[in-house]
From TrEMBL, chain A:
CDD domains: ABC_PstB_phosphate_transporter (cd03260). GO terms for molecular function: ATP binding. Keywords: ATP-binding, Nucleotide-binding, Phosphate transport, Transport. SUPFAM superfamilies: P-loop containing nucleoside triphosphate hydrolases (SSF52540). Gene3D superfamilies: P-loop containing nucleotide triphosphate hydrolases. Residues 8-250 form the ABC transporter domain. The keyword Cytoplasm does not apply. This is Phosphate ABC transporter ATP-binding protein PstB.
TrEMBL record, chain B:
This is Phosphate transport system permease protein PstA. Its main location: membrane. It is a multi-pass membrane protein. Belongs to the binding-protein-dependent transport system permease family. CysTW subfamily. Keywords: Cell membrane, Membrane, Transmembrane, Transmembrane helix, Transport.
Amino acid sequence: MSNAPPKMTASGVDVFYGAKQAIRNVSIDVRQEDVTAFIGPSGCGKSTFLRTLNRMNDTIPGARVSGDIRLDGEDVYAKTMDVVQLRARVGMVFQKPNPFPKSIFENVAYGPRIHGLARSRADLAQIVERSLTRAGLWNEVKDRLGDSGTALSGGQQQRLCIARAIAVDPEVILMDEPCSALDPVATARIEELIHDLRGRYAIVIVTHNMQQAARVSQRTAFFHLGQLVEYGDTSDIFTNPREERTKDYITGRYG
Amino acid sequence: MSKSLVPEAPVSAAQSVERRPTDWRTASMQRRVRQRYAAERRFRWLGLAAVVASAAFLLFLLASMLARGAGGFVETRIALPLDLARAGLDVTPAQLRGPRADLALAGAGLERAVDTAAETAFPRVGGAALLSDAAWLRVREAVKRDPGLLGRRATIDVPVASRLDIAFKGGGTRADRAIARTLAPQLSRGLNRDFLGGADSTDPTRAGIWGALKGSLLTMLVTLLLAFPIGVFSALYLEEYAPRNRWTDLIEVSINNLAAVPSIIFGLLGLAVFLGTFHMPRSAALVGGLTLALMTTPVIVIAARNAIGAVPPSIRDAARALGASPVQVVFHHVLPLALPGILTGTIIGMARALGETAPLLMIGMRAFIAAPPERLTDPATVLPVQIFLWSDDVQAGFVEKTSAAIIVLLVFLLAMNGLAIYLRNRFETRW
Ligand SMILES: Nc1ncnc2c1ncn2[C@@H]1O[C@H](COP(=O)(O)OP(=O)(O)OP(=O)(O)O)[C@@H](O)[C@H]1O
Ligand SMILES: [Mg+2]
């Protein structure tokens, strides 16, 4: 593995919802060249922790984050950090596909447009095509870019959301159970996609599917009851876990 | 529960543990299905009956208003033989072409000449009293169009007095109807342009609705321009930006209460604040609009908050996660999706404001106003107040004017709602 500094680092992160603590003292490094998987039983705080990385928790009333999170060494929670730019740099794909009720083209073009990334209309069209191609959706929608994004199938919608996220050219992409609503074929396409995107973006993916974590990720973090139980190379976690709890979880003894 | 579903099942200790598969063909099951269908049917009939009942009410209202008010748009005219050459009016052709033609004709005694002509033509049945106050004005228009009339004999159709008008339309006293029968060959009907183009008058045949309609338009314009942006921005702030605390709770309760305050109280408020403190002109559309805006804003705030709150959070999250700023989230995503709901609330509020009388009476919009308002600060009246004033008038001629004014108000309302529905459909997002 490389010795380059990690893309994102979190150390000693606690998250509270009101008085309730959802994340306890979690420290993790996310590396640029890896796909990092978060696994763990439902309600253990995977989504919560994922959202701290691009400050999406800011909008939840009562949510409080403490600890240190850095993107390329910059303090994400510093007063001087521009949240809007941070979210452009750290994109997110949600569990439930949530395309805008606009045309397919507008869905993908929205991000580049608000950040002024396109120099001309042709340039914008090119960005849209490239993003849709990378998301593996171009061939299916190239003749119907004007149709509503919500008229696509669930799997197509999720790929549209991925295309929308990469159109902004982020540095990190956070995916919260992107395949939970999809059939095996669509899931396989998205896994393929993650494979293709690896290296270009640092990718963090939350998943309930052990095989998926094993297939797509190089690093795996196991969460339990708001704590990070074990974090290491995916091959080690799945073949030779250090912790009893990890072993129980991945062998399906609870969850 | 299972006992009631399958009553035939023997209840013994051994069998109650092991449940048998449900038999969907038992008599009780069949009854259940029948009852379900019956309930569906009842419900559908109930809904249909409700729709039919409300449609019938609306039809009845429209039909009775049309039956009684249609006459208000029609005037009775009498063919008046005129010999203006003999009347010897002192007007030069140059004066008739100039801008002061009206003044010249009035000064030369045209009104007296018209009255004399009526006395000569209809001596025993009433003479000049048969003519509307507007009759000589109609002659004046004709003379201006064709100055040759001053030098020859001619017959001109002029509007008749209210009494004869009513009698010709089949109402009034028996004596008046007898006169109408006698004169029938000379009488005719035509569109009452004074009604559509004029303002209030003491003579019902001259009274017009345009003044009140224009007053309503100006008032609604002021109300819309104030209440819509203030209402929408308040709702946006409360939903998207305001922290949830005791203060915002207090504001929310106040707004909900404001929407329920009787409208006359807003009138008193307008009287005290706009007229008392700021010394704005009385009876003006500006003040009327301000007062109605006070009343309409809370309605729009409530509707807009509901519409904004109904925008799925996932859309906001999607936009935020792309790096949209809060303002961009609101204006690119939340507002467009909430707009149909906001428009619906705005229509309801504006329709209520359009029909409002009480608060406007408080700020002096009940004055007799004989000219349509030119500016927002001119004295004006509005349709419902005009209807109220006419329905209060003792002259029989105002009865059909009242109904006609109600028709105009309803048409205005329909036009407004139609526009709003069109706009709502245009902005509707298909998911
Ligand atoms: N908005 C919120 N307000 C209060 N508590 C919350 C909120 N969101 C999550 N929680 C709580 O925080 C804990 C962690 O939730 P989180 O959604 O991060 O779990 P998760 O690991 O993503 O679960 P799943 O796998 O089911 O998605 C849970 O106990 C949950 O009840
Ligand atoms: Mg989750």
